[in-house]
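ok trying again, last paste got cut off:
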Amino acid sequence: MDKKSTILLIRHAQSNYNIWEMEAMKKGLEYLDYNYRSDMIDCGLSEEGKLQAKKSSKLVEGEKVKFVFTSPLRRALQTTQLMFKSAKNKPKIIVLPILRERLEAACDVPDNIEDLMVEFP
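nice, full thing came through this time. structure:
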């Protein structure tokens, strides 16, 4: 029995952080000056990102997707929702923390940024 499976790899659509990062780089800000803004923690998709995800839903519309594995980060969850909520075959959505960007150990999980700023001014 020779059954073929296809794996699609999809990165999340544009996030608000992506926009902020581009703007910060244009202003010449250093990485540490913009990367740890508390309002960018687990930020969602930008308006453009939402449009990208909706447009991408057309690309997978005809595919017989059984499973969608996604990161638990807001931008990935929003991309998944926008791409697959109207899928005819209703694939099973599975959230896997290991799919997060840079989650290799407990030290990679950030604490509340405000608490850390108090502890380490």
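cool. Residues 103-110 have pLDDT under 50 and may be disordered. DSSP finds five helices and two strands in the chain.
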